[in-house]
Amino acid sequence: MTKKNDLDFLLEPRRQSSIAIFLILLKSFRVILSQAWPIFIALIFNPTKSKDTYFALVIIGITAASAIRSIILYFKFYYYVKDDELIIEKGIFQKTKLNVPFDRIQTINFKENILHQFFNVVSLEIDTAGSKGNELSITALKKDKAIAIREFLLSQKKSIPPILFSAEELEEEIETPEEELLHLSSIDLIKIGVSQNHLKTAAIVFAFMFTSMDYIENITGWKLEDGIDSILGSSSNTLLIGLITIGPAFVIIAFLISLVRTVFRYHELRFIKTSIGFKVISGLFTRNEQSATIQKIQLIRWTTNPIKKIFSLFDISLRQAASTAIARKQSIYIPGCFEEQLSSVRATYFPEESQLSFEQHVIHPLVIYRRVLYFGLIPAGFFLLSKYLENSSDDYFWAISWVAIVLFISWVYQRNFKYFVSDEGIRISTSIIGKTETLLKWFKIQGIEIQQGIYQRRKELCNLVFYTAAGTVKIPYIELKKAKRMKNFILFKIENSEKPWM
User: The domain 5-176: what is its CATH number?
Assistant: First the structure.
C-alpha cells in the first residue's frame, strides 16, 4: 500500500525514468523506418550506387539528430501535482505546460512493450474528458511509482480532500474487491485466432504486396509476372492456374498471420470487473492495461460469426466516451468470451434489462430495393456498358449473378435487422453472415436526428440516428411517424433523467 512519504515525490517536479531516453530514441527510429524503408532496401540490394551513399549520410544524420533530440526531451520533461491538478511541462523550442484538474481525468492506463517489461517500467497514459487524444502520456516510470500515481489520482477524483494519504486512508478508499471474469487459456487463444476475420488480413497482406512491387522491381529488376511464368509457365491459362496454386497458399499465410497476431495481442488476457467498471490486461510483447468506468461506458456491442458460434464465443466492445479521434482506441475490446461474461457485462451496464419488457420492431422491406439498386443494378449496368463498348457479350452471366447475390444479401439484411425498444433503452440486432448486437440506454444519448433522402420522403420513411459520446447508432428505413414518436419519447426520457451520462 502506498504511504504518505511514498507520494512526496509528486509535490516537486520530477523526470521520468532514465530508460525514457532509450524508448524515445527507438520511437524516433520506428518513425524513420516506417517512412524510409524503401531507401533501406535500396542500400541493401544496391550498395554500389553513388546516390545510396548520399542517402546513407542523410539517414546517419537523422539518426544522430534523433539521439540528441531524445536526450534533450528527457531533460525537458517534468511532471508534478499542484493545486488539485496534474501538471506536465515539456518541449525544447516550444515550451508546453499541461494542467489537468483531477476531476477531468477519465481513465488511467498502463502500456508495456517488451523493453518496458525488461526494465520494469511502464508507460502511463491518462485520458481526460473532451481530449482529442491521450492528453497526458509519460513514456517510462518505475512500475511501483506508476501504481502510486494512479492510486493517488483516482483518490483525488473520488472527491477525497487533496492531501497525501496515510496507508489506512488509502486502504479504505482505494482497495476495492475485483472479480476476474475471464482469463484466456492457450486453447482459447487458438479458438479466437481460428475465428478471426482472415479475409481482412488477406486484403491487408495483398495491399502491402501490391504496393511493394514497384519498389522491388526498381531495386532488383525482378517482376512478379516473370516469377509466376517461371513457376507456372506462360500459357493462356496461367492466371487460372496461378489462382488455383497460389490462392490456397495465400489463404494459409493470412490464417497464420491472424493466428500469430491474436497470440501476440491477447496473450494471457485477463478481463476483470472492478468496483467502478472493468479492466483488461493483455499482450505478449506489448502488455496493455486498460480500464473503463461504468459512467464513461456509453454503449456495449457484441458480435459472433459462424466459426465463433461453434466455439460459443462472442466479441465484446465497451464503447467509452471519447472524441472521434480516439473513440476506437479508448474502447475496451475482448476478442473472445462466453455467455457468462457477456451476461455479466450486460447486467453491469444495464441492470434493469432483464426486468424490462422489450417490444420488437423490423425495418421496412423497401430497404431491399434501394440496396439492390445502389450495390447491384448500378455497378452491373456500368460493367455491362463497358463490355458493350468492347464488343464483348460473354460476361452477362457475371452481371446477373452479381445482382442476384446483392438481392439475396439485402433480403437477409432486412429480414435479420431487428430493434427492441423498452422504457429505458434499446437493443439493435443485425446479421448477414455474423451477428452484431448493440445495447444502448436512453440517457446516454446526446442527440437524435431524422434523416431522409428523396426516395424516403416519397415513401414516408427515414433513418433514425442516435448520437452518443462514443459514436453513432442508426436504424435505417423505419416509418416516419414511428421515428417521430420514438424521438419525442427518447427526448422526454433524457430530459427527465437524473442519471449522469458520464
Answer: 2.30.29.30
